[in-house]
Specification:
The protein is of the alpha/beta class and about 675 residues long. Among the domains are: about 45-140, OB fold (Dihydrolipoamide Acetyltransferase, E2P); about 240-430, Rossmann fold; about 440-595, P-loop containing nucleotide triphosphate hydrolases (Rossmann fold, 3-Layer(aba) Sandwich). About 35% of the residues lie in helices and about 20% in strands. A 7-stranded parallel sheet has the order 11-12-10-13-14-9-15, sandwiched between helices. The chain has a 6-stranded parallel sheet with strand order 16-21-20-17-19-18, sandwiched between helices. The radius of gyration is 28 Å and the shape is globular. The protein starts with 14 loop residues before the first helix and ends in an 8-residue tail after the last helix.
């Protein structure tokens, strides 16, 4: 079985299941194996029933001492069982499973897994999983739980992955013995088997080390390869000097020190023969867009064209309107190129770009299509660096005569990390916010004090402002205790009768999401319930309050990014973090968010917390691999991967295959680098 094979090669995967899997981004065996558990159920040890907490999943067991099957009407049945363990007698009830009455034997020892509840004054486990203790069907172990979609359960995913993992052998290995021995890595087949179905905690840790190493190696190889491409393919990339003061003096506000420093860095880069490859990092609301505008002004004034690529249509439109207003004052012509444009209009725009009648083009992935030709493209700008892969930026840069690349990111990255992960780029950092921006007041609330947050939401909306309410999941899931956006939407509608409440999440198509966000910006929606799709979104100056449910489930950097959706004007704004955990770690993280407002300080703390303690963390949370940035808490592995990526690139192209399977390296690079932006607003 090859990792590149379609999921249809798996027994039991027909057209219907293939469609369901593809809706989750799973098309190949590799995609399926990369769909890692978001948590694990620890079923290694049976707990005495007297010690079992209520409403918590638990593994218990005992000897069956009594059973009784009875009818409860309308063809329904209830099987009542009594079992004894070392702490006493407990009860189990099975609804509508009459066959168990014959299968369960008195005097036999059974293992059960489920939630313990108080029922008629006794501790009772309802509809648990059950198996004979010590049998091949024993349900003990470390059990994976997967994120799923409608029509396919976590258990079904588990069975598919188990089928595939059992067929893996050394033939799926893509690293040479040299790299495996040098880094003391687990074999590939072992890693995939134990990341999904760990034999033990130590086996899980070893598997996780290998999986993270593989991802970081592919990432670092792509980053370093891209830098080499830019250096080797570009000749003289210099742009003639211009008087940038004409633009900065026209602005209705005074630039901050950070903005001026970033503009000066870019000016030096543009005058240099070596192609610019600069990352401008700025905290949320620090005014990065005006820095990009200054760079565009310089390039166009010197007789070149510029391209500005955003991750979504709604953000591209926002940038287009702003650039049209700001640069139009100087007679500079701006065009918008997105997928929704009519064919005739698109043809006209393409002709104007090719002839040079358009100075700057703003768009999404439409900019990297083969039919987009420039007369003299000198500058490529991409917004929100972490939403684009190196390969995507490379395709757009290939259209540029001068190959100058400027990347704008609102995600503060610790400098120690950035120096390694983005070692192919130069850096400018903007920390200061415009003087008219007020600090966002951040409060931490528990389940008991949650209603106070919603009182403030009501007050802000009553005063004509708008509110975000963020949930970590889209819909209720029996495998998760997370608050869902759909349930929250129903709650808010009932709570705030008369308020205009909207719901947005990643399963909506792009036109729907764009319409909802525009309605929110215009005030047709006052309270927007959402998932993290709003993490990268348009500016809504009237949005003054955000409530984040299950805040303990988010990283600090992501909480800060979400908080940055408010405070986009001179209005006082608020952020409420609803935390349902009483753990010391969760409380300290919430307090950090309350006391810290500097995104760079927060990112350093986030990075410290992720990398703290045992290298591989705890079994409870597992390693989902859903966020690539979660990988960067592992300094040791990152250093190994970076060194090995440099080693591979130091070889001639024909010799690199001795270290890695180059086809597999390409597969993994594409998987990491090409991001799906469909769920981002």
């Amino acid at each position: 079985m090859r990792l590149s094979d379609s999921v249809t090669t798996i027994k039991g995967v027909g057209a219907k299941k293939q469609t369901l899997l593809e809706s989750m981004g799973i098309s190949t065996i590799y995609d399926l194996l990369e769909h890692k558990p978001f948590r694990y159920q620890n079923r290694l040890t049976r707990t005495p029933f007297m010690d079992v907490p209520e409403n918590k999943d638990v593994l218990i067991g005992g000897v069956l001492i009594n059973k009784r099957l009875r009818s409860i009407g309308r063809g329904r049945t209830m099987l009542e069982c009594a079992l004894r363990d070392e702490s006493g007698i407990f009860h189990a009830i099975f609804f509508n499973m009459p066959f168990l009455e014959k299968n369960l034997r008195l005097g036999a020892d059974y293992t059960l897994f489920g939630k313990m509840k108080w029922r008629n004054g006794a501790k009772t486990i309802v509809n648990p999983e059950i198996s004979p203790a010590g049998s091949t069907r024993d349900i003990r172990g470390i059990i994976p739980v997967y994120r799923r979609t409608a029509g396919i359960t976590s258990n079904e995913l588990s069975k598919l992955i188990h089928t595939v993992s059992e067929k893996l052998d050394e033939s799926c290995e893509w690293l040479s013995e040299e790299l495996i021995e040098k880094n003391n890595l687990a074999p590939e087949d072992y890693a995939y088997k134990n990341i999904h179905f760990p034999e033990s905690v130590s086996a899980y840790n070893r598997a996780k080390f290998r999986i993270i190493y593989d991802k970081l190696l592919a990432f670092q190889y792509s980053v370093l390869h891209n830098r080499r491409f830019l250096d080797e393919e570009c000749g003289n990339a210099s742009i003639d000097p211009v008087d940038i003061g004409i633009f900065t003096d026209s602005l209705p506000f005074k630039l901050t020190a950070g903005q001026l420093n970033a503009i000066n860095d870019i000016e030096r880069d543009l005058l240099n023969e070596r192609a610019m490859n600069r990352l401008v990092q700025g905290d949320v609301g620090c005014g990065k867009t005006v820095v990009a505008e200054a760079a565009i002004f310089h390039v166009i004034s010197a007789g070149w064209q510029a391209a500005f690529m955003a991750p979504t249509e709604i953000l591209a439109r926002q940038h287009f309107y702003k650039l049209s207003n700001e640069l139009g004052k100087f007679g500079m012509r701006t065009a918008l190129l997105v997928s929704g444009i009519k064919a005739a209009e698109r043809r006209e725009i393409l002709e104007d770009i090719k002839s040079g009648d358009i100075d700057v083009v703003v768009g999404t992935h439409a900019l990297i299509q083969s039919d987009v030709e420039f007369t003299k493209l000198g500058l490529v700008i991409t917004d929100e660096q972490h939403r684009f892969g190196v390969n995507q930026r490379k395709v757009l840069a290939e259209k540029a005569e001068a190959l100058n690349v400027l990347v704008m990111s609102a995600t503060p990255i610790p400098r120690t990390l950035a120096a390694t992960v983005f070692g192919d780029m130069d850096f400018s950092v903007i920390k200061n916010k415009p003087s008219n921006r007020k600090e966002i007041i951040t409060r931490y609330a528990t389940e008991k004090s949650r209603e106070r947050a919603y009182v403030n939401v009501y007050n802000e909306v009553k005063n004509g402002n708008r509110a975000y309410i963020v949930a970590p999941s889209i819909e209720d899931n029996e495998d998760s205790d997370l608050t869902s956006a759909e349930a929250l939407f129903d709650e808010i509608k009932a709570k705030f009768k008369g308020a205009k409440v909207g719901l947005i999440h990643g399963k909506l198509d792009k036109p729907q999401k764009e319409r909802i966000m525009n309605e929110f910006a215009a005030g047709a929606i006052e309270i927007l319930v959402s998932t993290v799709v709003i993490e990268v979104g348009i500016d809504v100056p009237k949005a003054t309050v955000i409530v984040i449910e299950n805040a303990e489930r988010f990283g600090l950097a992501q909480l800060h990014q979400l908080r940055g959706r408010v405070g986009r004007s001179d209005l006082q704004s608020y952020c409420y973090l609803i935390c349902y955990s009483e753990s010391e770690n969760a409380i300290s993280r919430m307090n950090a968010m309350v006391t810290m407002s500097d995104g760079f300080e927060i990112s350093e703390e986030d990075y410290r917390l992720r990398g703290a303690g045992d290298l591989m963390g705890t079994m409870q949370h597992g390693y989902s691999g859903n966020s690539f940035y979660d990988l960067f808490g592992y300094d040791k592995i990152l250093k190994l991967a970076t060194d090995d990526a440099q080693l591979i690139l130091s070889k001639n192209i024909s010799d690199r295959g001795a270290l890695v399977d180059m086809d597999q390296l390409q597969l993994r690079t594409n998987n990491i680098m090409v991001q799906d932006n469909s769920n981002i607003i």
